[in-house]
Task: inverse folding
C-alpha cells in the first residue's frame, strides 16, 4: 500500500497539462500563462505629471514663495507640442498629461496660492523632478514583464492591457467527468424513502472541480450492475479526467475497478495509507487520469482535496498545486487508533497573535459530514503517532475561507 506522500507523488508523475487556448483578458484570471510577456513599448510611454498642478522649472523656485506667470494649460489627453515653460513661467497641468519642454518639476495645486489664469504663487519648497513619472520608469520596451507559468490575477490583467494585449494564451480548464455509483442513490429534490440516500457526492465533487478551476461534467449515477457501470464509465472517459465515487472497496457490488480494467484503464494504484480514504484508486487511460474515490461523502471530499485537486491544478499548468501548509498547535490531545496510516483530521484553525491553533471540529467518524462543514483545514498526522498531546505542533492544510481570530 502506498503512503500518503508516495500517492501524491505518483499521481503528479502521471499528470500532463490538458492543452492551451487563447482567451480574452477577463477570462484569463486564475489561469496559467503559457507565454512570456515582453513589453512592446515603454511604460509610461512619455514623461507625465503625477499630480494636478503646475509644471515649473526647478531653478525658478529656489526662493519661496515665488510668483510665476501662467502661460499654458495641458489637460489629460492633450499633447504638449508647442507648449513650453519659459523662465519665470508655469504651465497648468493635469494628472497623466505630458510634461512640457522646459519643466522639470510639478507643483500640486495644494502647494499654490492666488492662482488665476495668468499667474500663480508657489508656497512650498520644490524638489527637482518632483511629481513627474518618467518614460520607461515602470517598464522598458523589450523587457519580459510577466513570465510563462504565472497565474493571472487582476494586477497581471492590468499589466497585459497596458501593454496592448487583449488576448493571452493560457492552459485549458480540464473537463472533469463526475460519476457516482450505487443502487441506493436518488437525486436531490426528493425526500428519501427507506434505504435511499441523496446523491450529494456528485454535487460536492462538481463544486470542488469548479472551485479548483476545472469544468465539471455530471455523468449521473451508475447502478450496481456491470451494464450500467460500462455505460457510465465509457461516457465519463470522454473527458479530460474522470472522478468516480463509491463502489471501490472490496464489497461484492464494488464494480468500479472491475469495469475500468475491462475498459482498458490501467490501474496505477489502489489503496493509500490514509484515514479516511484508504480505498482510493488511481488509474490512467491514454494519459487521462481516473480517480476512484470512496463513497462516504467525507472521504470523497477529503481524497478530492488531497489527491484530485493537485492533479487538476497541474493539468491547468500550475506549479504550486498543494494548499498552503501551516504549523499549528493542537488544542486537544489526540488518541489515534489507526497509527499505521496518515490521519487527516478535520479541524478549525484559530489564530492568536503569531500562533495558529488546531481544534478538532467535531467527532472524526467518517460518517459525520457536519464535522467537515465546520472545518477550515486538515491536520496531517503522520503514521506512527498513536497519541499526540495538547500543545504539540502539527502540519495543517488550509482549504477553508476562514481562520478564527481570537
Ligand atoms: P460504498 O463505497 O459504495 O460502500 O459507499 C459508502 C457509503 O457512502 C455508503 O453509506 C453510501 O450510501 C455512501 N454514498 C455512496 N455514494 C454516495 C453519493 N453519491 N452521495 C452520498 N453518499 C454516498
Ligand atoms: Mg455502493
Result:
Amino acid at each position: 500500500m502506498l503512503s500518503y506522500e508516495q500517492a501524491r507523488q505518483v499521481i503528479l508523475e502521471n499528470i500532463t497539462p490538458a492543452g492551451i487556448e487563447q482567451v480574452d483578458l477577463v477570462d484569463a484570471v486564475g489561469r496559467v500563462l503559457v507565454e512570456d510577456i515582453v513589453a512592446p513599448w515603454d511604460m509610461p510611454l512619455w514623461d507625465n505629471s503625477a499630480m494636478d498642478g503646475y509644471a515649473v522649472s526647478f531653478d525658478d523656485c529656489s526662493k519661496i514663495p515665488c510668483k510665476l506667470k501662467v502661460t499654458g494649460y495641458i489637460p489629460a489627453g492633450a499633447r504638449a507640442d508647442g507648449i513650453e515653460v519659459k523662465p519665470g513661467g508655469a504651465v497648468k497641468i493635469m494628472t497623466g498629461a505630458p510634461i512640457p519642454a522646459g519643466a522639470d518639476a510639478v507643483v500640486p495645486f495644494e502647494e499654490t496660492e492666488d492662482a488665476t489664469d495668468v499667474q500663480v504663487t508657489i508656497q512650498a519648497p520644490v524638489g527637482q523632478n518632483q511629481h513627474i513619472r518618467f518614460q520607461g520608469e515602470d517598464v522598458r520596451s523589450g523587457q519580459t514583464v510577466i513570465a510563462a507559468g504565472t497565474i493571472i490575477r487582476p494586477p497581471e490583467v492590468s499589466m497585459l492591457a497596458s501593454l496592448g494585449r487583449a488576448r493571452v494564451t493560457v492552459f485549458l480548464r480540464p473537463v472533469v467527468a463526475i460519476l457516482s455509483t450505487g443502487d441506493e442513490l436518488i437525486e436531490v429534490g426528493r425526500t428519501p424513502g427507506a434505504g435511499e440516500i441523496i446523491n450529494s457526492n456528485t454535487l460536492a465533487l462538481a463544486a470542488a472541480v469548479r472551485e479548483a478551476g476545472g469544468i465539471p461534467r455530471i455523468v449521473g449515477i451508475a447502478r450496481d450492475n456491470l451494464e450500467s457501470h460500462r455505460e457510465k464509465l465509457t461516457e465519463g472517459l470522454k473527458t479530460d479526467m474522470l472522478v468516480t465515487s463509491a463502489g471501490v472497496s472490496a464489497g461484492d457490488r464494488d464494480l468500479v475497478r472491475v469495469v475500468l480494467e475491462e475498459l482498458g484503464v490501467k490501474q496505477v494504484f489502489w489503496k493509500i495509507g490514509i484515514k479516511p480514504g484508504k480505498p482510493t484508486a488511481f488509474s490512467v487511460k491514454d494519459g487521462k487520469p481516473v480517480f476512484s474515490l470512496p463513497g462516504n461523502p467525507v472521504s470523497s471530499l477529503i481524497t478530492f482535496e488531497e489527491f484530485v485537486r493537485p492533479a487538476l491544478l497541474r493539468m491547468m499548468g500550475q506549479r504550486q498545486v498543494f494548499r498552503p501548509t501551516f504549523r499549528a498547535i493542537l488544542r486537544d490531545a489526540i488518541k489515534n487508533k489507526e497509527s499505521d496510516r496518515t490521519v487527516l483530521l478535520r479541524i478549525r484553525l484559530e489564530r492568536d497573535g503569531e500562533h495558529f491553533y488546531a481544534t478538532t471540529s467535531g467527532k472524526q467518524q467518517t460518517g459525520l459530514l457536519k464535522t467537515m462543514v465546520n472545518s477550515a483545514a486538515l491536520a496531517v498526522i503522520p503514521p506512527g503517532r498513536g497519541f499526540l498531546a495538547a500543545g504539540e505542533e502539527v502540519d495543517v492544510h488550509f482549504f477553508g475561507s476562514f481562520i478564527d481570530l481570537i
